[in-house]
Structures are given as C-alpha cells and as structure tokens.
Write a structure and sequence with these properties.
By secondary structure, this protein is an alpha+beta fold. The protein has helices at about 40-50, 75-85, 105-110, 120-135, 170-180, and strands at about 5-10, 15, 25-30, 55-60, 150-155, 160-165. The longest helix has 13 residues, at about 120-135.
Length: about 180
C-alpha cells in the first residue's frame, strides 16, 4: 500500500484520490480553528502560495478530537480559514485522526513515522504536561497528539517527516524546500 491508494472526501463531499497528487510534495496536516496553534495556517498558506507552482500540495484535514477545538460544520470551518487566514489550499471533511473512526490515511501515516517527542522549549513542555494528564502512556504510541501535526510526503510518495505542532514552522518549510 502507498499514499496514493487513499482517497479523502473534501468539505463539499467530493472524493479526492491522493493519486491526483502523484509526483508532488505534500504536507498533510490535521487542523483546528480554535487552538493555540491555529496561527500555523498563515505560514502553511505562505508555503502553499510560494511553492504550489513548483509541485507542492497541502492537504488540510480539520479534526475535532483535541478538546473540541474545531467546532462547526465543514462550511463554517472553511469560511473561518479563508476569511481569517486567506487559505487557498484544499480542505478536506472534518475527520478523526485517532481511534476507531480514524481515517485509514492516518493509520498509514502513523505506521510510517510514530511520535518522537515534542522537542524543547516552553510549548513543548506545556504539551508534554497536558498530554500526561490525558494519556499517561502518550510517549509510547504513534497516535496524533494534538492539532497541527504535520506529515511531509516526497515526490515518490514516501512519508519522510513528521512534525509535531511544537516544531518550528521554519523547519517544516525547510524540509519541504529541500524536497522541491
């Protein structure tokens, strides 16, 4: 199985086969509209506008699994993102990224690169403290830990990087640039 075997549904109900993006670098990200990391939309959109013509695609998958930080319908989420952050990249249907109803795509992504930690700094320490309260064993499973976890896929369809939401957006951008 490869990344290109998966099909997602966009916020309008259209099926989007990932094979449509074969040969492109992809950033797959679970997003939220009411999270401390929501401002990540701005640098993600900047990458999209800077690199889309060079073969870069963003796959935005809103998710409400983390403290209900993505309320609203798919239309309301899309309106928020376009009005507040000017997003132009494709937005999928709000979906689960963990648990019994998780998208099969996320089962695949997590099997390729598991959780490796939040890194260092104040945000990383805060995330670790929060996660310990929610899941004492969070370090030992590959689950998505929070909104704005990012997976980078190279032009050959390989999952090459996983960035937790605490990662610097400059590091995400650098990874994408190297693959273009």
């Amino acid at each position: 199985m490869t990344i290109y075997d998966f099909t997602l549904t966009d916020g309008k109900g259209n099926e989007i086969p990932l094979s449509k993006f074969k040969g492109q670098v992809m950033l797959i990200v679970n997003t939220a509209t009411g999270c401390g990391f929501t401002p990540h939309y701005k640098p993600i959109e900047k990458m999209y506008t800077d690199f889309h013509d060079k073969g870069f695609e963003v796959i935005d998958i809103p998710c409400n699994q983390f403290m209900g930080q993505t309320p609203g319908t798919d239309d309301e989420i899309h309106e928020f993102c376009t009005l507040k952050y000017g997003t132009t990249f494709p937005q999928m249907k709000k979906s689960d990224v963990n648990g019994p109803n998780e998208l099969p795509l996320y089962t695949y992504l997590k099997s390729k690169i598991g959780f490796e930690g939040f890194g260092f700094g104040v945000k990383a320490a805060a995330m670790a403290m929060l996660l310990k309260k929610i899941d004492k064993d969070y370090k030992n499973n590959p689950d998505i830990k929070w909104n704005f976890t990012k997976f980078v896929i190279d032009r050959a369809g390989n999952v090459v990087a996983r960035f937790e939401p605490t990662a610097k957006m400059e590091d995400v951008r650098s990874c994408v640039e190297k693959l273009l």
